[in-house]
Amino acid sequence: MKLARFALVAGALSIFLSVSAAPAPSERIALRTIAERHGMTLREDGEKSASLIGPKCSISCFLDKSSYVVGGICVYGQGAAERSPRGITIPLNDWKYVLEPLVYGRKIPEVRCICIDAGHGGKDSGAHSAALNLTEKSLNLDVAGRLRKLLQDKGFKVLMTRDTDRFVPLEKRSSIANCGKADLFISIHFNASESKTAQGIETYIVPRQGTTATARLSSPLRAQDNVFCHNNKFDDHNLLLAYSVEGKLIRLKGVRDRGVRRGRFCVLESVHCPAILVECGFLTNPTEGAMISQSPHRQALASAICDGIVSYIAGYRL
Ligand SMILES: [Zn+2]
Fold it and tell me: How far is the CA of 189 from the centre of ligand 1 (A)?
């Protein structure tokens, strides 16, 4: 009982500390300052963009977008670049929590056990394309099975949240990973949109405490955005893992980069290790859907996710 009370106090304290440590969302930093402090060259590319070119990578910032291009891969932040008397500025939070971890990397803890989560299943079919007769739950399971084999061949222990067509509640999926002491959690999904032109791959991580999901960037913070979830302990590692996996996936032929994004997915929030959710393409896009229906493409997707995991573990490098 005493221990439980201590844990509660410690939890409350960590929430307090992490809130007070983060800069206010309105604080901004000039690109010139970043360039001076980090040995980078600042180059204005035109009216609407500027780049920071460093010894390890280049970062492109845009005056009309909340995303950056880091080492050729799209990564969403919280706000667009702006012109000011100090030159072009970006949100300080984006430098501290999005760009700086990618430029400098982090020490990666040992990974032995990986939990693969094939999204949906059973009564929950997920996305569907009537035109191509594609059902997400089956495709998720197919790619998850291929990924399991690839990871097992590399010597990893693999846990599956499901390996048949059955319904598994979201909280059960996180608890399979937590009870099995998984070191990484990879959730596999496919996307759908009312717009047939929507296409490409996106990789999600949970938003940092006090920040919004990518889809809500222009909306005010909600109460749940200020809650510290279990998975927030792994914010930097989530980002590095998502970046490595997205970076491998977008090298596949015919695939578009929709970026590393943030979303408040329940299945990620309560996982006690670095966790990502990969949307492997749009079933509703005629070209991409046709590609996804081919098993060599699904094998290539699994192989790229495996390569991304391995390159993250090997020591994240830009
Ligand atoms: Zn899904």
Answer: 4
